[in-house]
Structures are given as structure tokens and as C-alpha cells.
Amino acid sequence: MLAESGSGHPGGSLSIADILAQLYFDSLNIDPTNPHWIDRDRVVLCKGHAAPALYATLALRGYFPVDELLSLRKLGSRLQGHPDMNKVPGVDMSTGSLGQGLSAACGMTLAGRLDARPYYVYALLGDGETQEGQVWEAAMFAAHYKLDHLIAFLDNNGLQIDGRICDVLSPEPLDEKWRSFGWRVLTTDGHDVEAIAQALITAKQSTGQPVMIIAKTVKGKGVSFMENKAGWHGNAPNAAQAAQALAELK
Amino acid sequence: MSEIKKIATREAYGQALAALAEENENVVVLDADLSKSTKTVDFAMVAPQRFFNVGIAEQNMAGIAAGLATTGKIPFISSFAVFATGRAFEQIRNSIAYPAMNVKIAATHAGISVGEDGGSHQSIEDIALMRVLPNMTVISPCDGPETAQAVQAAAKHKGPVYLRLGRLALPVIHGSDYHFHLGKGVVEAPGKDIVIFATGMMVSHALEAASFLAEEGYLATVANIHTIKPLDTEFVLEQANSCGAVLTVEEHSIIGGLGSSIAETLMESGCHVPFQRLGVKDKFGQSGSPQAVLEYYSLTSISIAMAAKAVLAKK
Fold it and tell me: Of A172, B4, B14, B96, which alpha carbon lies 20 to 30 A from B143's?
């Protein structure tokens, strides 16, 4: 996909792929034939640059043809560089500008409670993204309004465009920060689908507070030359690199 | 002379919201710790379960409204215009305007007539900021009755709307027979020598200016442009062509607001009549009583009349 488009974000897409797979192929209450079903669980990909991972997941889950994935980032394609909810079936919120998604997820959760609907809202944040102040405004809001149908994942791959998050501007200690903001905090291996599934079961037992699942992940997971390399944040592989990556991922 | 009835557009907004609470259960209201000033408190009193105070966090407020809108809710979000449109600009751009969310941004304390709070709180750029966004509708009502109907129209319109409201009590221009039509210019006073396009609180000032001009033998048309975007270009050209001279008046920077919008329309249609913009001339505001500030920045009925005469002299 990314090699075909010549641009995109492979590293952060691979770090969140297992979480997306667990959500869309097991945990979520969704119906790909009815993407606007009012009682569906919602997903907000706050780290919208991981759009390729979301698109691949949605296509494989049946929201649109898998062939369409190769149109990523091309003129006229529904698959914009960052997710557009008005173009792509299955995308619940347009995202891309970091720090804004969690607020929208709060709004969706609040609406569900107002209308006594059973759905859950899942927000997928990057760890570098927590440097945005709006994330903490939303964190405060979710706890104050006791949004217990809001479950967030923090894709804790430790890297951002300019390097390691601890070198650029450390948001640590992440677990203590979220806990002190009134959230229930769980941690999991973000590449172990059984562990992710178990964390989600635990998260859904929470009452009266939102849940943050800090998922330890590896940027570029599954591709030897991409793993833990900040340089693969926003650069697409060439054809040969793509072929090697796909072979390793199989 | 009988006492002229006055009401602030923010007061009318609060009352209209409270009425909407009963008419439309999808309407929800968010405020950022200014509910007593923005008057969203009126809604909170009648529908507390659909009112949410987000604290002093305008960016989050914009995002929460976007999320609510995805489910069919019609969120009205309020704060002072400086913060509602400036602090949360990029949230409005990417979470509201870009996905065309059905969110209504109703900002009060717009313009320099905020007065004493000073330049930090006097929004002179909010029309420009909102007008430049695709999908956004921009409404700037001129009195209480128009505001009440604009709130109804905003709720019915599908898509993002910016509603520009003020702090000061304003003369009530319109009676109960007035009908607000989104996107349509209104002739408030017919004339023939010059057209004064005004918006918001400047409409009543322009009407007063027209009466001064009439005393000197000039008949000015006063046109109320309550919907700045989409602009009623047909109406603007018709008035400009028939009067042959144009003055625009707004309690906003002369850059990017009503005057700019009308200038663009006139130039592109080849309507080259004498033209002048009256507004805040690329400066920030300052503290003072609202009246003193309006006088300092030449936004009074007398200033409007003088500016109109200067335009007329170029005919």
C-alpha cells in the first residue's frame, strides 16, 4: 500500500496493527454491512497517521474491497492520507491532527449515555500524541463525567518523528499521569492479541471511570529493518523494501 | 421620544436556546465556564441533563461537540468570540469544519463593544477566521428578534454554523412580523444615493446614520447582511449597482470580514463604484466604556454618516 502510494506512515501503523485486529475481528460490536448502525461500538483513531493499518483492517473485515487499498493517498481515492469519515465506510471520526481524537471520543461516549445506548467508544492514541495539551483536557473531562464506556489505548512504541519520546519531550510517567487524572490504567503487550483481549474484558468491567490501556508496542513491528526506527515514522518503503517487509510479515 | 426597547443578542440567544430545549431534544449545549455571560445558563436551567460545562477548555469543547454531532446531536458551543474561534481554531477546522459536523458555534462578546475587558478580549478577527473555512456558515445578527430566529435557523441548517453575538444591549429593530431568511440580505431602510452594508450591532448605527444623511438631503439604503457566508451576492450587486456608491460597516477588522467579502464580490463582477470599508483599521482594541471605545475606533452613527459623505463625494 505505502510503496504503491510512495508516502505514508509504516512504523506507527505496524505498532497498532495487532490492537486493531483484536478490536475489529473479535471485541467490537459492529456490522460491516451497516457501518452507520446507531448502536455500534465506535473507534477513533486519534493517531490518524496510522490510517493504512485502519484501512487494511476495515477492508479485511469487509467494509470495502481489499483491492481499493492500493489507491491509498491517490487523487480521487476515498483512502485519504488521514482517515475521512465522510469517505470511508467504517471510519467513525475524521482524524489526523494529533490531540483532537480523544475529545471527539468523549463526545460520542457522552451521547451514548444521554440516549442510554450500550455502545463503547475506543480511542487509539499515540504516546507522542500525549504531548498535545488537548489530550489532558479530554482526560480531565472523561474522568469528571465518569465516562466508563470510553476505553482508550496508548500505543506506547516510544518513538516519534524526531526521535525517542523520552528525548524529544518525555510524557512519562504515563501510567501515573493517567491514574492521577482519574482513569483506570491497565497495561498490556500490544502485540499479544490474547493479552489485549483480556485487557479489554477487564476494561469493560470498569464502572464510573474511563479506562486507559497502555500497550507496550514496537514501532515497525514485524519488519526487521523498520523495528524501533524513528526514521520509519513517515517514510514509505520502496518496492524492494516492501517485498522484504511483506515476506517477513507473513 | 418613546423609550427604545433594547436587548443584547446574547440575551436573545439564551432565551432562544431555552425555547429550543423543549422543541428539539437533540439540541445539547456546551460552555467553557462562561455560561452566565454567554447566557447558555438559560438552557441549563430548563434542560440540565443536556447542558455540559467543560471547564476552561475551549479546544476540548470543540472536539466533544464534534463527537456528539456524529451521533445526531445538535451541539451549540459557547464562549467569548476570542476564545471560541481563536483558541479552538484548529479544532474547529479539523474536527468540525473539515468533516462538516452539525455543530453550532455561538460566540458572544464579539467586537470592541466588549469595552472594559480590553484588547485581549475584543474579537476583531472572528468573522475572518470562520469565513475562511469551507463548509462554515457565518451569521451576525443585528438585534434580539433576528438573533432568536437565527438560532432556530442554525439548528435547522445541517452543517457547521458560526453565530456572532455581542455583549451590549442593542435597539430592537425588528417587529414580530420579521422573517429571517438564512443567506438573504435585508433592506432595512430604502434609499438611492449610497448603500451602507452593515452587520451585527452596526446595523442600528447605520440606520441612525441614514437619518442624519437624510437631513442633509442624501438618501442612503441601509442593507443588513446578517449572513456573511454564504454572502447574498445577487442582493449585494443589485444594491451596489442601483445606488452607485458603497460603504461597508462592521465591528470587526476591515481585513477579512464583511467589507472584504463585499469588495471581493464587487471587484469580481466588475462593479467599480466608489467604495469604502469602515471597521477596526488593522489595530487591536483597548479598555474603555463600550461607547468610548466605539467612538475612538470611529464606529458611531456620526462616523458612518461622515464616511458615507466621503464616498458620495467620489461619485
Answer: B96
Q: Supply φ then ψ for residue B76, to 5 degrees.
A: -105, 125
Interface test with B, best of A103, A108, A129 (most B CBs within 10 A): A103
Question: Are the beta carbons of B256 and B133 closer than 8 angstroms?
Answer: no
Q: Which residues pair with A216 in a beta bridge?
A: A156, A189
Within 8 A of A87 by CB-CB distance, chain B residues are: none
Task: Please check whether residue A58 touches B, CB under 8 A.
Answer: no
The CA-atom distances, in angstroms, between A95 and each of A80, B91, B99 are 11, 11, 9
pTM exceeds 0.80 for this model: yes
Give A34 to chain B, closest Cα distance, Å.
15
Q: Is residue B275 domain-resident? A: yes
Task: Tally the domains of chain B.
Answer: 2
| Residue A138 in contact with partner chain B when CB distance is under 8 A | yes
Residue A215 β-bridge partners: A155, A188
Q: Residue B23 sits in which domain range?
A: 6-171
- pLDDT of A10 > 80? The answer is yes
Check B3, B22, B23, B58 and give the catalytic one: B58
Do B166 and B193 sit in the same domain of this protein? no
pLDDT digits (tens, 9 = 90+) for A214-224: 999 999 999 99
**Three cell numbers written together for B1:** 421620544
Q: Under CATH, to which class is A2-249 assigned?
A: alpha beta
B11 is catalytic: no
Domain end (from B148, B171, B194): B171
The answer to whether residues B130 and B222 belong to one domain is no
Q: What is the count of residue pairs from A and B with beta carbons less than 8 Å apart? A: 102
The rounded Cα B241 to chain-centroid distance in angstroms is: 25
Domain final residue pick, B171, B206, B223? B171
Mean pLDDT of B84-113: 98
> How would residue B2 be classed by pLDDT, with cut points 50, 70 and 90?
low
Q: What is the DSSP letter of B2?
A: P
Inspect the interface and report whether the beta carbons of B66 and A103 lie closer than 8 Å. Answer: yes
What letter would DSSP give residue A25? Answer: I
Helices (H), chain A: 2-5, 10-22, 51-61, 101-114, 133-144, 165-168, 174-180, 193-204, 239-249
Dihedral sign (CA A179, A184, A190, A192): positive
A143 touches chain B (CB under 8 A): no
CB contact under 8 Å between B60 and A85, yes or no, is no
Contact (CB, 8 A) for A12 and A185: no
Nearest to B111 by CA among B181, B9, B263: B9
Residue in B28, B62, B98 closest to A94 by CB: B98
Look at the alpha carbons of A42, A48, A49, A55 in this order and tell me if their dihedral is positive or negative: positive
